[in-house]
UniProtKB/TrEMBL annotation, chains A, B:
Belongs to the pyruvate, phosphate/water dikinase regulatory protein family. PSRP subfamily. The keyword Nucleotide-binding applies. It is an enzyme of class 2 (transferase). Pfam families: Kinase-PPPase. This is Putative phosphoenolpyruvate synthase regulatory protein. HAMAP family: PSRP. It catalyses: [pyruvate, water dikinase]-phosphate + phosphate + H(+) = [pyruvate, water dikinase] + diphosphate; [pyruvate, water dikinase] + ADP = [pyruvate, water dikinase]-phosphate + AMP + H(+).
C-alpha cells in the first residue's frame, strides 16, 4: 500500500515534517511517498502547491494526505481546496490554546525558528565547542564542558555531541579511549579530573564490526577479535570506575542524546526548535 | 502572564517539544515555563509525572498545559488524570489517520526516532563529511559534495553544514573566502571547478561585527572597517560570478538550511528526523 503525503508550511516545514514522521511511523505497512513544501508564504505559492497536489492525486488515483502548520488563514484556505485529506495542526490546536490562555495568537509565521540573538550565540558556541573538543583533540577546556562522552572509535560519540550542541545548546566534548588507554586499564588523567562529567557509550560487537568495516574493510581495526577486545576492556573500565553508560546499538542519535540528558539531568541551554 | 507547560512522551520527546515550541511561539505575550519529560514508558513513570505536574499546578495556582505524544493508551490515561489541560497529539490525529488509511496503528513507541541501518549510515557519513570538509580544510572531495557553502569568516557556514548533515543527510562542505581570495577578486580554482554547487552566505555588517567581537574583541578582524570591506568584496564576487546567495542575518540555522534546500532543489537523503 502506497500513499502520498505533503508536509506544508509557511515557514521551514520542520515542525510539519517532525510531527508527520512520528504519526506516519505508526503505520509501518504503508509506504509513504513524502513531499515537503516549505515557505508557502503567498497565495500564489499556495495555488502552485494545490496544482502539484492535485497532479499527484490524479496520478495516484487516491487523495494524498496533507499535514500542515500554516499560520496564515488565507493561505490555509487555498491549500484546503486541494484534492486531499488535510490534517491542519495549527487550526486544531491554536484555537484551543487561545481559549485556554485568553490571548490572541500572533499569527506570525516562522516564530519558532526565527533568530533570537542569545539563543543563536549559545547554540553556535556549543557547536564550535563540540568541534574544538571532538575526538580528544583538546582536553584543556573540559572545565567548560557540560558532558564528556567516552567510548571506543566509531561508537557514535561525534554525532551525539554535535546533536546535543545544535538541538539543546549543550557543550559536549568527546574522548576516544585508545588501545593504550584500554591496556593500561585506567582512565587518562584528563578524564579522571572530570569524572562527574563522564558518560560512556557501549555498542554491540557485530554492529561495531560492520561500521568499522565500512570505514576500513578487512583491517585489524575492523576485525571481530579487535572489536571484541576493545569492548570488553572498555566495559570493565566503565564498571570499575563507576561511569554511567548506555548501549547505543539500536539507538538513533536523537535517542542517545535525549537518554543522556535524562540520565545525567543535563540542563537544556536553549529551548528553541 | 506566566504558564507552565509539560512536553511528555514515551520516546525522546522531540516531536512534542518541536510542535509545542511552534504552537507556544504564537503567544508571544505569555512567558512559558517549559518542562520536558521524555521516556515516560511505564505506569509508574506516568504516576511520577502526574505528581510533579500536580505540584506545579498547586504552586502556580493555575492548570499547567500538557502537550504529549504518548503512544500507549494506559500511560496516556494516567497522564490525563493530572490537574492540567492536555493537548493529546496522537489521540487527535492517529484515529483520523487510521480511518483514512484503513490500517491499524502499530502503537509502537519511538518509531520515528528508532534506528534504521541505512538511514544511520547515510546520516553519520554526512556528519563526518561535513567535519572533514569544514572551513576549506580539504577541497579534493568536492566532487562528492551535494553543496558547498561559501562566505566570510563567521557568517554561519559551519553550523549550517552540520545541520544539513544531521537533519537531512545532505553532504555539505564549506569554504571561507579569505582576504587573499577577496583581494584577487576571483574564485579559487577548487571552487571554480564546482561552480554549480556553490551557495553564498551574506550577513549584515553590524551583526557580523558583533559576532566577531565576541570572538576576538577589538581586533582588526572584528573592526567595522574590515567587516565592511570583506562583505562588499564578497557580495561583488557573488554577483559577478552568478552565485546564488542569501542574507542570513535574521535567520536561524534551520531557516538557512531549509532555504538553501529549497533554492538549490537539494534532495533530502534521509526522511527520518
Amino acid at each position: 500500500m502506497r500513499r502520498s503525503v505533503f508536509f506544508i508550511s509557511d515557514g521551514t516545514g520542520i515542525t510539519a515534517e517532525t510531527l508527520g514522521h512520528s504519526l506516519l511511523a505508526q503505520f509501518g505497512n504503508v509506504s509513504f511517498e513524502q513531499h515537503t513544501l516549505p515557505y508557502v508564504g503567498s497565495p500564489e505559492k499556495a495555488r502552485e502547491a494545490v496544482v502539484r497536489i492535485n497532479e499527484v492525486a490524479a496520478q495516484d488515483g487516491i487523495q494524498p494526505i496533507i499535514i500542515d502548520t500554516i499560520v496564515d488563514k488565507e493561505i490555509r484556505s487555498i491549500i484546503a481546496s486541494a484534492n486531499a485529506c488535510m490534517f491542519d495542526v495549527f487550526e486544531t490546536f491554536v484555537g484551543k490554546l487561545e481559549t485556554l490562555l485568553g490571548e490572541k495568537p500572533m499569527n506570525a509565521v516562522g516564530k519558532s525558528h526565527s533568530v533570537n540573538t542569545q539563543t543563536y550565540k549559545t547554540r553556535i558556541d556549543a557547536v564550535h565547542f563540540a568541534l574544538d573538543n571532538d575526538d580528544g583533540a583538546r582536553t584543556r577546556h573540559y572545565d567548560m564542558a557540560d558532558i564528556i562522552l567516552i567510548g571506543v572509535s566509531r561508537s557514535g560519540k561525534t554525532p551525539t555531541c554535535i546533536y546535543l550542541a545544535l538541538q539543546f545548546g549543550i557543550r559536549a566534548a568527546n574522548y576516544p579511549l585508545t588501545e593504550d588507554d584500554l591496556d593500561s586499564e585506567s582512565l587518562p588523567k584528563a578524564l579522571k579530573e572530570h569524572r562527574s562529567k563522564l558518560f560512556g557509550l557501549m555498542i554491540d560487537a557485530d554492529r561495531l564490526t560492520m561500521i568499522r568495516n565500512e570505514r576500513k574493510a578487512n583491517s585489524r581495526y575492523a576485525s571481530p577479535q579487535q572489536v571484541m577486545r576493545e569492548l570488553r576492556a572498555i566495559e570493565s573500565i566503565y564498571i570499575r570506575e563507576g561511569i554511567p553508560f548506555l548501549d547505543v546499538s539500536e539507538m538513533s542519535v536523537e535517542e542517545i542524546a535525549t537518554r543522556i540528558i535524562d540520565q545525567k539531568h543535563l540542563k537544556r541551554r536553549i529551548s528553541s526548535n
